[in-house]
Amino acid sequence: MKRALRWAAVAAFAAAIFVESSTTGLGELAPSFAGADKAAHFVIYFLFAATVSWAFGGSRGAVRAAAWAAVIAALYGVTDEVHQHYVPGRAMSFYDWLADVSGAAAWIPAAWARARRKPTPPRPRQGS
Hints:
Mean pLDDT: 87
Oligomer: single chain
Number of strands: 0
């Protein structure tokens, strides 16, 4: 059941990306600094890869799960860009996809660092 809920979270994240990609006229909501669009793609796909990696379950094989998660996120990024080609007011962009891939790939060293850290010992209870 726990695994199904994790994959449901992945499906919900993918659906949110799809819905946002289907929307036109978000320009007034987006930050206005140079590269904001690419930064948003990077962060969203970093988090998407992290969610997919989490859905694979546990810390065993965390780096392998992160690598597969990055591949899945990058492939989903391709489908997202193709989808935008058919949405009025949106455009398919190779550079957006590169930002997607970069964000997804950045999850791999983050997962590696996370897997290598030592667990924090539990805190003693206070006031018992």
